[in-house]
Each structure stands twice: as C-alpha cells, then as structure tokens.
Amino acid sequence: MKILAIGNSFSTDATTYLEPIAASVGIDLLVRNCFIGGCSLQTHWENSFKSDPLYEYQKNGQMIQWISLKDALLMEQWDAVTLQQASHYSGMVQTYEPYLGQLIQFVHRLAPQASIVFHETWAYEIGSPHPSFYRYGFDQIHMHEEIKKAVYSMAEKYHLPVIPTGDIVQMIRRTPSFDVNNGGLSLNRDGFHLSFDYGRYLAGLVWFEFFTGKPASTVPFAPEGTNPDLIKELKKMQ
C-alpha cells in the first residue's frame, strides 16, 4: 500500500514511525509526507497551482527532496492520500471551505485511483504556549471537541473516512500514565507537537490500525529507549 500525506508538522509526527511499525509485522507500506510547517488547507490549495518545489517530501520524518504538490501526487500510484487542516484552524469549521473541496478535486484529477482520507489532528497540551491556543479559550477539551465537530462535519459532507488520531490522543491523555494534571507524561514535546517517543508512536499505531485493519497489540516495534510497560499501554488504545 502506498500512502501520501499532504500536511504539515502534524502529519510528520503521525507518519514518522508508520513504515517501521508496519514492517515489524511483515506489512509493506510506502509512506511519504508533503511537509510545510503550519500549512493550512488554503495554502495547500494555493500551492496546487504552482510548479515550485515548496514541500519537503519526507520518509520516516526525514526529507528526501524538495517537491511540488503536483509532482508528489504523480510520484507514485498512491492508494490513499490524506488531508488535514493546520492545527490552529483545525477546530474552526469556517476555515475549511472552499479549500477542502477544491483540494479533493485536485487530488482526484491527478491521482484518480487514490482514496482520500481526512486526518483528525489533536488538541494542544494543557497550558500549551502555542500562540493560537486562545482561539479555544486555552482549553484542551474544548479544542478537541471543536476539532472533532469540524472534522466529522467535513468528512460527512465529502464522504471521507477519518483517521481518528485526535480522539485516540485525547483518550490516552485520560490514562494515569499520560494524565499530565496528575503527574503523568505528556504526549507532546512542546505543548502542541507530539513527543518524539510515545506521542509519535501512538499516532503511528492509529494510522497502522486504520490502513491495515490489524490491531496495534500485534506490533513488536517500539522506538528506541521507550519503557515497555508504557508501550503496552499505548497498544491498548481501543
């Protein structure tokens, strides 16, 4: 299976471990990410008209080359293409259109064989220093609820399946090991991006289950230096 993510640093977080996770159970995934930091649906749509190599074309979170959005879509016979909103707009449904609809048409023209999937990103950490957290009243739960509302309304409109990363991250935040309010580990490294170990791994597991239908509990791979007990907790993310 070949998967192309069109996103930003949040899609980098989500895809960094996806190939090694799948490989560890004998599944061959080719996963690439088109990265521009903080890139919104509007900017992706504007870039669809440009031939400039504006994107980092990434594998496992590392750049392979600079590429245009058009060339990335033509690089492989993609089975799936994922779209997502920039984190600061993710819970603001009025920022999605007309750009999401235009991007869907653009992807269909260049990669008609590909399924289009929407990636539900996560709310910021409690006390996040992100300058746009004020849009959500500095409230993580409120931000998550607004993201979910926006994502699923757009998914229903365009009949898109949703990768529920934001839902799973929020669920794991309620477990004792990752409950920041009660001394647990944060799944974020800076208040908004996922942590390099457990956060990125969790997102990779969500994508793995979504695209393969296999349970996360079967995955033997774990990032180097992680605690096996915490890894087991993340793999129970039902």
Describe the structure.
This protein is α/β, with parallel strands linked by helices and 238 residues long. It has a single domain (2-234), classed as Rossmann fold. 37% of the residues lie in helices and 14% in strands. It contains nine helices and seven strands. It has helices spanning 9-15, 18-23, 41-47, 69-75, 99-110, 140-158, 165-172, 198-212, 228-234; strands spanning 2-7, 30-35, 55-59, 62-67, 80-83, 115-119, 162-163. It has a seven-stranded mixed β-sheet, with helices on both faces. Helix 3 crosses helix 5. It is globular, with a radius of gyration of 17 Å. The two termini are 24 Å apart. The relative contact order is 0.15. The mean pLDDT is 97.
